[in-house]
Design a protein that fits this description.
The chain is α+β, with helices and mostly antiparallel strands. It is elongated. It has three domains: 54 residues, no CATH class; 171 residues, Orthogonal Bundle (Penicillin binding protein transpeptidase fold), CATH 1.10.3810; 364 residues, Beta-lactamase (3-Layer(aba) Sandwich).
Length: 743
């Protein structure tokens, strides 16, 4: 049976008709029409039901999870803000930031025309809508269609803030849903001016600048509060296309973009047409910063590492903390000049780094505050002042002498400069000579190696290590196969070496009458709200006897006045010690005045020798050059006068203290008659004294020059020495250094 027949039978039954009398009567047609309507109605109902169910399902299955996973607004919005590092006088020396370099500014501090330019350019109905603006979207679409190009965006300022601050830049349906939801939440929580302030501090302006303040400094070299109407219009034109529209990349397009914003300000009622016409012809001057080397880069890196350890990366790079350091901007400039002007350029190593390198550390011994720090030539990140553990050579000898003086020995105590051996170890003086019986004063001034070893044997290596540790040296090895507790330690032959920072700080203890202050680089840390997070409170510790420190300082003063460090003379009381390691791999001069302590190291990173470069040569010259400049405005202060020691003491051959020097040494007349600069004639260039000056003349008949700078403190005026000139173009490639004992 056909489908039509079934329909007719069914209809017949419903109408009460017989099949035989069935036909296409009007009654049937009416019935058929009503039946079709019912079927259509059923379809509509089913469709609506399906649509409603699908909508509900879509909302709970798609929209709701998106909204549910949308970041919640918690508390007050705090944008990522750059941190800043200042010197001790509040001068900005560095800005720390991650991907976003931002300085936050309050909208209350901005003239109205600044924010008006942004409202006119980005969202003219900003004060009328509730975060989403359908009218604005339709207007933008129509404007872009008429123009045939993208001239207006449909996003409100609120939406842009939400996208930049709370979401990603991805162009997806999910992000748009989140953006709309959060825009509503932002409008509900904040007032319009608060939203505008957050937007202007968040938006990107190109060239790594985030926020209106950073952009103003970048492009115009001024604070945002000082922006003119034209300058504000230029900045307001950038956020739409921050890469292409910034003035550094497209200077020719600036006038056109500026005038578009000015015209929009007229339409918005923020500007009169006459003013627009006048401002459209106004020429602007941009402040493009010079690509300069980061100032005090090694010091900044040193501070940064301390901050990261203490606070973590997020706080340092994102929370806008203010770091006030101990650095003196002027001294840092002078330190860099002194190093770079004297340091020769000899070779490029296999890492592409210019050699030799140098380090200079300057510390206030009365507080431990680092005033200047140079960690190299400034072309790499390796901070030699803080990280490089190098052999100190004779610059380590003062620790041995300090132990002796603290035990009661006088600088005039006699000691034998004669051959000494310990197993296979037989130290030699630099000049390969021995000078018989000498005083401890002369031995240190002329840096006699054998005497230092003999004296270390007398005080014991363990005692020398103890003093060095108390003064801040942390790299000494006290036990095991590579222990530094041996006689060679007196000449700076250490397992690990020392860093310029620690060695300079240790010498500061001598300058500061035996009181140690640990070196510090940070004075204070303040958060973005002005709350002090950290404030240094230096505390000194008396680690060595004040008279022992004064005695050693007095002896080391002679190093500068008539010893191996004469190139370091600065015309006022100064003390120090030279250091040159085996084969000339390291050269040092570390010294101090009552005002400042400074240490200089010179060498190659790869330990290739610097032929004939000694501590009394290049390092002493650099030290003297810097310290003379650093003390121009500092008061003239003399060292404290030590108490007189027992001149009747001698140290015998077997290392014992003998009350009668004549009995111990045979006859005091046997004291050596000459000494010739035991660190070699190279270190004594510039000396006005003959290298063969008799010892008794040195001790008993000082020259007028020595009288001025001697222990009697008759005068604080000291005559500066003229250093030997250094050839900066000296090429020492391929030159072989003679093997010399550490000195």
């Amino acid at each position: 049976m056909t489908e039509e027949k079934y329909d007719k039978e069914e209809s017949q039954e419903e109408l009460g008709m017989n099949l035989e009398t069935y036909d296409d009567s009007s009654q049937y047609k009416e019935y058929k029409k009503k039946n079709r309507f019912k079927k259509f109605l059923k379809i509509v109902v089913v469709f609506i039901a399906v649509f409603v169910l699908a909508s509900v399902g879509f909302f709970y299955g798609v929209i709701y999870p998106i909204i549910n996973n949308t970041p919640e607004l918690k508390g007050e919005y705090t944008p990522i803000v750059s941190s800043r590092i200042y010197d001790r006088n509040g001068k900005l020396i560095a800005t720390l930031h991650g991907e976003e370099n931002r300085i936050v500014v309050s909208i209350k501090d901005l003239p109205p025309h600044v924010w008006q330019a942004f409202v006119a350019a980005e969202d003219v109905r900003f004060f009328e809508h509730g975060g989403l603006d359908p009218r604005g979207l339709i207007r933008a679409v129509w404007t872009n269609l008429i123009a045939g190009e993208l001239r207006e965006g449909g996003s409100t300022i609120t939406q842009q803030f939400v996208k930049n601050a709370l979401l990603t830049q991805e162009r997806t349906f999910t992000r748009k849903i989140k953006e709309a939801f959060l825009s509503y939440e932002v409008e509900r929580r904040y007032n319009k001016m608060e939203i505008l302030e957050m937007y202007m501090n968040q938006v990107y302006f190109g060239e790594g600048a985030y926020g209106i303040q950073t952009a103003s400094l970048l492009y115009f070299g001024k604070d945002a509060k000082n922006l003119t109407i034209s300058e504000a219009a230029v900045l307001a034109s950038i956020p739409r296309y921050p890469t292409a529209n910034n003035p550094f990349r497209d200077a020719d397009g600036v006038p056109g973009r500026k005038n578009i914003v000015l015209s929009k300000m007229v339409i918005a009622g923020y500007l009169q047409e006459t003013d627009r016409e006048r401002l459209s012809e106004e020429k602007l001057t941009f402040h493009e910063p010079k690509k300069e080397k980061v100032f005090a880069s090694y010091f900044t890196d040193f501070v940064l590492q301390e901050l990261l350890e203490k606070y973590g990366a997020d706080k340092v790079y994102k929370e806008g903390i203010e770091i006030y350091t101990t650095l003196d901007y002027t001294l840092q400039e002078e330190a860099e000049k002194s190093v770079f002007s004297h340091l020769p350029k000899q070779q490029i190593d296999d890492k592409g780094v210019q050699q030799p390198q140098a380090a200079l550390v300057v510390i206030d011994p009365s507080t431990g505050e680092i005033r200047a720090l140079v960690g190299g030539r400034g072309t790499d990140k390796y901070n030699r002042a803080v990280l490089a553990e190098r052999q100190p050579g004779s610059a380590f000898k003062p620790f041995v002498y300090l132990a002796a003086f603290d035990m009661g020995l006088s600088p005039e105590a006699l000691i034998e400069d004669k051959p000494i051996s310990s197993g296979y170890y037989s130290p030699q003086n630099y000049a390969r000579k021995f000078y018989g019986t000498v005083t401890l004063r002369i031995a240190l001034e002329q840096s006699l190696n054998v005497v230092a070893v003999r004296l270390n044997q007398f005080v014991t290596p363990e005692k020398t290590i103890e003093y060095a540790k108390k003064m801040g040296i942390s790299t000494l090895v006290e036990s095991g196969e590579y222990s530094d507790a041996n006689f060679a330690m007196a000449l700076g032959g250490l397992s690990r070496g020392v860093t310029p920072l620690e060695l300079t700080s240790a010498y500061g203890v001598i300058a500061n009458k035996g009181v140690r202050f640990a070196p510090i680089a940070i004075q204070k840390v303040v958060d973005r709200n002005g709350q002090v997070l950290f404030e240094a409170s230096p505390k000194g510790e008396q680690v060595i006897d004040p008279n022992a420190a004064a005695t050693l300082a007095d002896v080391m003063r002679g190093v500068v006045n008539r010893g191996t460090g004469m190139n370091a003379g600065i015309g006022r009381p100064a003390a120090g010690k030279t250091g040159t390691t085996d084969s000339y791999k390291d050269a040092w001069f570390v010294g101090f005045t009552p005002n400042l302590v400074a240490g200089v190291w010179v060498g190659n990173d790869n330990n290739i020798p610097l032929p004939w470069t000694t501590g009394g040569d290049l390092p002493a010259i650099i030290w003297g050059d810097f310290m003379a400049k650093a003390h121009k405005e500092l008061p003239l202060i003399d060292f404290p006068k030590p108490k007189p020691g027992d001149k009747g003491i001698a140290i015998s051959k077997d290392g014992k203290i003998i009350a009668d020097p004549k009995k111990a040494l045979g006859n005091s007349d046997n004291v050596s008659s000459t000494v010739d600069g035991s660190e070699g004639t190279e270190e004594n260039i510039g000396s006005e004294r003959s290298k063969n000056t008799p010892l008794d003349i040195i001790l008993n008949n000082p020259t007028s020059e020595d009288k001025q700078s001697g222990t009697d403190n008759q005068s604080n005026k000291e005559k500066p020495r003229k250093p030997r000139p250094i050839n900066p173009e000296l090429d020492l490639k391929g030159m072989k250094s003679p093997e010399r004992q550490e000195n």
